[in-house]
Design goal:
about 450 residues; 12 strands; five-stranded mixed β-sheet; Beta-Lactamase; Heat Shock Protein 90; five-stranded antiparallel β-sheet; alpha+beta
């Protein structure tokens, strides 16, 4: 359903309902008004007839009374007059009979409905003191009229009211439709402007708009900004990936050619080992880049599954303990006695801890003899720290330690380990702190948790 049609329904349906109720009310009022007016006409006719009969002794009606009876809008008026002795004086024979008989208060008109010659009629009967040819008493004047005139009068009033209201509703409908079209013109113009954009045009919408749709446009601009940043980030990632993988792939290719051109078995073995090392380096770099992109696109804080940070840290330590021992290093693990429940992505958090261990093994230098993993719970946060006793990071180099593809000193790493760690922690609403320690390096991951 279009917005125009919906707005028209919202406005016109109540208007039509109100018009229908008003039309019914107008019909009821017209019917009541017709009853009052026609009853007054009958009463005026009965009074005029009673006056004329009294003044003429029952001989004739005056011209004025005849005009009144002829010109009434309710059609023909019938009448019947009985004298003081109950004798018929003048008028039509066999008048309608009142439901309660002939008992009636003198001077007070009686209105009732009856049937006269197969038609429903409205009757008024008036009893008054009179004197006919020396006979004093009470005369009885009965005047009646069919309902045809009343019904026609009511129908005319109702038709006029219906036509008036229909014209009003139709006029309002036209005005509302034109007004809706005019009011929605900024939306249609906005739609036209957006439809003319190309797929790579994500610039902010900047045009005068009614305040009712500014919120929608503001949200749309925010979405455009986020989408543009995401696309730029993807472009940067692809560019970095192409740049960073170029040399390792070239190295793998040159090593493969060297293996093919080897002249002795010893040469072949040596160059094959070099090829394997080059392939491992390229594979590690590709995996690190994919891990970084996956971490960057991870779920926001407060979404994911609930897991135990203590259990994750223990699993990472157990998984890496053999290769740390091969390096001749000790691995110390300090865990609290109770679980620390956290909501997020356990695989990414484990990968962040593992990257810290990998970073220590690759960059701590020959003096490395101990790596320590500790988990500490505070009131509203949990901290996972990975420290070593290696050569550490110089204070002046700390600002670029977390940059992508950045290595403080040349080595076999990809320069993405700490960037992955920082991205994972930020996606979980936490922070990464490079602690100021005297010996080695200590990096703490701080995650927000609910107070227990």
């Amino acid at each position: 359903m279009s917005l125009r049609f919906r707005l028209a329904l919202i406005i016109l349906v109540p208007l039509i309902l109100i018009s229908t109720v008003a039309g019914y009310w107008r019909f009821t009022v017209a019917r009541q008004t017709a009853e009052v007016l026609f009853d007054r006409t009958l009463l005026a006719s009965s009074l005029a007839i009673a006056r004329d009969i009294a003044s003429s002794g029952g001989d004739a009606l005056s011209e004025t009374t005849r005009d009144l009876m002829r010109d009434t809008s309710g059609g023909q008026i019938f009448y019947h007059v009985n004298g003081p002795d109950g004798v018929y004086v003048t008028g039509y024979a066999t008048p309608p009979v009142a439901p309660g008989g002939n008992t009636q208060t003198v001077g007070s008109p009686m209105f009732f409905q009856a049937v006269y010659r197969g038609q429903d009629v409205r009757v008024v009967r008036l009893r008054e003191a009179s004197d006919f040819e020396g006979i004093s008493g009470y005369s009885l004047v009965t005047v009646w009229q069919t309902f045809d005139g009343r019904h026609q009068f009511v129908r005319d009033l109702a038709v006029r009211a219906i036509l008036l209201m229909a014209s009003l509703v139709l006029t309002v409908a036209v005005v509302v439709w034109l007004g809706i079209n005019f009011g929605l013109r900024p939306l249609t113009e906005l739609q036209t402007a957006i439809s003319r954009r190309s797929s790579d045009d994500l610039a902010r919408i900047q045009r005068p708009l009614p305040k009712e749709i500014r919120g929608i446009v503001s949200t749309l601009n925010t979405l455009f900004d986020q989408l543009e940043r995401a696309i730029k980030s993807k472009d940067v990632f692809i560019s970095d990936a192409a740049h960073q993988l170029r040399n390792p792939i070239a190295g793998v290719l040159s090593m493969a050619e060297a293996v093919r051109s080897a002249t002795t078995p010893e040469d072949t073995v040596e160059r094959t080992n070099e090829l394997i090392d080059a392939a491992r380096h390229a594979s590690r770099l590709a995996n690190q880049m994919l891990s970084y992109e996956r971490a960057r696109a991870g779920s926001p804080a407060g979404k994911g599954i609930t897991f135990d940070l203590v259990e994750i840290a223990g699993e990472v330590a157990a998984r890496n303990c053999p290769r740390i021992s091969i390096r001749g290093c000790d691995l110390e693990l300090t865990l609290p006695g109770s679980p620390i429940l956290f909501e997020g992505e356990p695989v990414l958090v484990a990968e962040a801890i593992e990257n810290l261990l990998e970073n220590a093994l690759k960059h701590a230098g020959p003096s490395l003899s101990r790596i320590r993993i500790s988990v500490v719970r505070h009131e509203n946060s949990a901290e996972i720290s990975v420290s070593d006793d290696g050569r550490g990071i110089r204070w002046e180099d700390r600002s670029r330690a977390f940059d992508r593809f950045s290595q403080i000193e040349p080595g076999e790493g990809s320069g993405l380990g700490l960037s992955i760690v920082e991205t994972v922690v930020k996606n979980h609403g936490g922070t990464v702190v490079l602690e100021n320690v005297d010996i080695g390096t200590c990096i703490t991951l701080r995650f927000p948790i609910r107070a227990s």
